[in-house]
């Protein structure tokens, strides 16, 4: 019989023992989530936009910038490069008048894998750039061959040695035609950042079409860039002489929105999400409907009402946008662990994005993985346990599963989760969860 200690007793025990760790969530499951939440700004838009401020003279004010450790890391990189950066509430202001460096130290690069998105901007603005090779991460090897091939085509000289990239631009980057073998989000962003101030026109074929690409191009065009076709497979960037900083509002985070929807779904909840873009959830909404949830939305809000018992989502195949987002795979899988029937996942984007499966099984889920395929057979219920977040979205999945589980679930490794979710326990407690960070 599973011994379930009352939440309060465990909390007092933890406090008395003084074994308060710094990055664990204690989740008391089976509370129905009801109420409303405002979704924070998109991490994967704020990061490239902050990098883009380097290209601009003067001051940029980036509003709706989420409070995340990855954003903090980007701010540290901008400050290290010499920019004056100030955060006031949800606004990060960047002044590049004192920009003076072109190298990014190893520890800052390692803090955030996606710091590779600074390469195009630094090299374009400063004429050279030196940064360490961003290591692989929890999702498997994270190659940057597409980034480097495209930047070399634009005239950047890139020497790779001892884990470092030493880049220089002899004269000025030159526009050219680039065909990406895969619609890489990061590579598309780096090319756009390098092409905005290049000489001549750059055409990117098979470009990534994610909403975050459109947000980046919207910011750059507001600064004086000439970028056409963002959101389509072919983007044209006409290089200009100069960009001037301006104001920008980061789009809402579609992955955070999806994550909160799965949390409401697994707890039989009724949740109103404010500040969402339903268009960005076009592949996600039908899956919640297939699972038996009732969804209603207008142009900025979405309400999800969950059934007492969810139905399985038969097939979830991750694809480049506008396909089902790989970042939503783990939270969606957590939802299907307690849905009636069999759900089949195919992870087509990353080589190793099932590290959360073992931890979900510790909570009582029934999941089998064969290569890129994961087969989830819904179980009547999950049981609280101690689990460890393997990566950002895997951590979110464990939190969602903990909300559904009977009893107490302890999720450690929160440093991963804090990269992409703003004070997640505050958001969840706001809608009826019982979650505490110890
Ligand atoms: C961005 O990563 C996001 N990160 C990821 O979100 C997201 O999962 C991914 O796009 C796909 O949508 C940010 O925007 C900061 P890719 P990125 O380049 O740019 C291969 C999260 O949880 N590839 O589109 O690194 C690569 O190995 C994070 O918020 C190459 O082979 O993704 C992967 O298999 C995780 N060579 C696939 O392409 C390259 O040069 C997609 O990568 C580049 C990528």
TrEMBL record:
Q: What is its EC number?
A: 2.5.1.7
What is the organism lineage in this UniProt record? Bacteria, Bacillati, Bacillota, Clostridia, Eubacteriales
* InterPro entries on file: Enolpyruvate_Tfrase_dom, Enolpyruvate_Tfrase_sf, MurA_subfamily, RNA3'P_cycl/enolpyr_Trfase_a/b, UDP_GlcNAc_COvinyl_MurA
The keyword Transferase appears for this protein: yes
Species annotation: [Clostridium] leptum DSM 753
Q: State the family named in the UniProt similarity comment for this chain.
A: Belongs to the EPSP synthase family. MurA subfamily.
The Enolpyruvate transferase domain covers 28-427
Concerning PANTHER family, the annotation shows: UDP-N-ACETYLGLUCOSAMINE 1-CARBOXYVINYLTRANSFERASE (PTHR43783)
Q: What is the designated name of this protein?
A: UDP-N-acetylglucosamine 1-carboxyvinyltransferase
* Compartment(s) where it occurs, according to its Swiss-Prot or TrEMBL record: Cytoplasm
Binding-site positions, UDP-N-acetyl-alpha-D-glucosamine: 113, 142-146, 327, 349
Q: Which GO terms describe its molecular function?
A: UDP-N-acetylglucosamine 1-carboxyvinyltransferase activity
Give the reaction(s) catalysed: phosphoenolpyruvate + UDP-N-acetyl-alpha-D-glucosamine = UDP-N-acetyl-3-O-(1-carboxyvinyl)-alpha-D-glucosamine + phosphate
Q: Which residues bind phosphoenolpyruvate?
A: 43-44
**Active site, per annotation:** 137
């Amino acid at each position: 019989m599973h011994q379930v200690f009352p939440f309060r007793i465990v909390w007092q025990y933890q406090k008395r023992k003084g074994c308060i760790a710094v990055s664990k969530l204690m989740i008391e499951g089976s509370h129905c989530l009801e109420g409303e939440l405002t979704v924070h700004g998109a991490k994967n838009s704020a990061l490239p936009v902050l990098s883009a401020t380097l290209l601009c003279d003067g001051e940029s004010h980036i509003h709706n910038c989420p409070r995340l450790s990855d954003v903090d890391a980007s701010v540290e990189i901008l400050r290290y490069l010499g920019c004056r950066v100030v955060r006031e509430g949800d606004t990060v202001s960047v002044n590049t008048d004192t920009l003076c460096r072109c190298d990014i130290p190893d520890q800052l690069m390692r803090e955030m894998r996606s710091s590779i998105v600074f390469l195009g901007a630094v090299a374009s603005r400063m004429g050279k750039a030196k940064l360490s090779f961003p290591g692989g991460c929890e999702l498997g090897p994270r190659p940057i061959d597409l980034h480097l091939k495209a930047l070399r085509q634009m005239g950047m000289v890139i020497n790779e040695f001892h884990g470092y990239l030493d880049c220089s631009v002899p004269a000025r980057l030159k526009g050219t035609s680039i065909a990406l073998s895969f619609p890489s989000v990061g590579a598309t962003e780096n090319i756009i950042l390098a092409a905005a101030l290049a000489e001549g026109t750059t055409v990117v074929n098979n470009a990534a079409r994610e909403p975050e690409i459109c947000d980046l191009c919207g910011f750059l065009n507001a600064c004086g860039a000439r970028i056409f076709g963002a959101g389509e497979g072919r983007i044209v960037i006409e290089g200009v002489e100069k960009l001037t900083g301006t104001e920008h509002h980061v789009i809402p985070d579609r992955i955070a929105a999806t994550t909160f929807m799965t949390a409401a779904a697994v707890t039989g909840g009724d949740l109103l999400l404010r500040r969402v873009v339903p268009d960005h959830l076009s592949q996600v909404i039908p899956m919640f409907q297939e699972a038996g949830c009732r969804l209603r939305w207008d142009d900025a809000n979405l309400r999800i009402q969950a059934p007492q018992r969810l139905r399985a989502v038969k097939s979830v195949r991750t694809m480049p946008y506008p396909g089902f987002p790989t970042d939503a795979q783990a939270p969606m899988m957590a939802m299907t662990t307690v849905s009636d029937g069999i759900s089949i996942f195919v992870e087509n984007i990353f080589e190793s994005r099932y590290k959360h499966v073992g931890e979900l099984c510790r909570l009582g889920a029934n999941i089998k993985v064969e290569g890129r395929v994961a087969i989830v057979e819904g179980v009547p219920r999950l049981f609280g346990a101690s689990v460890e977040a393997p990566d950002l979205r895997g951590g979110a999945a464990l939190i969602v599963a903990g909300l559904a589980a009977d009893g107490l679930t302890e999720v450690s490794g929160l440093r991963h989760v804090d990269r992409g979710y703003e004070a997640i326990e505050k958001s969840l407690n706001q809608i009826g969860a019982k979650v505490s960070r110890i």
